[in-house]
Amino acid sequence: MKTLIIAEAGVNHNGDYDLALRMVDEAAAAGADYVKFQTAVPELVISRFAPKAEYQKETTGEAESQLEMCRRIHMPLSAYKPLAEYCREKGIGFMSTPFDLVSIDCLAEIGQDYWKIPSGEITNLPYLRRIAEVAKKVIMSTGMSTLDEVEAAVKILTAGALTRDDIILLHCTTQYPTPFEAVNLRAMEALRSLGCGAVGYSDHTVGITVPVAAVAMGAQVIEKHFTLDRNLPGPDHKASLTPDELSEMVTAIRRVEASMGSGRKEVTDSERPNIEVARKSIVAARAIKAGEILTKENITIKRPGSGISPMRWDKVIGLTARRDFLPDEPIEL
Fold first, then answer.
1. Distance between CA 323 and CA 325 in Å, rounded?
2. Tell me, which fold does domain 267-333 have in CATH?
């Protein structure tokens, strides 16, 4: 399976529709398969008393509440249908993560290949049930979750028409940016034990090293935040890739895919011509006369590998030279 690469625009458009269009352009140019946004009615998601996360305080200050911040950076629901149409025009898939039931209904009218469940909604029973009603394929991030909580969410999603094969689980660490020592890529193996359709990775580390490593470990979906400018105001820009870095990540992932191979240890077509050049043969160490006994004193091993293999050394020792040999000349039996 080709790795599905999701360029996570999220709310890095800062509520500016034109900026969102430019992000679609950059994601398409980078070679991502999908560009993903976040759809929400802030008042339905966040109470007036909800505090900001520490990383949000660091990036956006403490003067405004989490609700006020989200009102500022989210686009209206009416923006997503034309945004999805623009994605189709640009040849890139459209996705958006809903954060409330009204947003789910909005996106259901637009249609999506995959429905993305964010880490924070894994314990939201009414939300999960509604996703199960509208979705044909689900990608669920599992940050902040135990394996039992992930399994419980999967059971809710599969109580109706969805099967486990319809669900992709993304390992994730909900910290922005995620320290490398907190990544725990091996947790993908634990997720794989739940028997869902595929396992992937949603990355919040700095740079592209970890998502590329995740692909080498078998991740079939990679999600990564990107921004047009890390200096823009907003909570997620600092932990996001620039467009050039996004393109670099896509290229690196495709190279890793190409390098994974079949798993069989065999001679490749590309290296076969080098066998004769790099391997060695049994050759004369000095001039040898016909009738001489071949010994470790008069034969040796040198390139090229077009003659008798050194693996036959013990069988050649003690034989009689049938003709004269010049120094370095391959021994013939």
1. 6
2. Type Iii Antifreeze Protein Isoform Hplc 12 (3.90.1210)
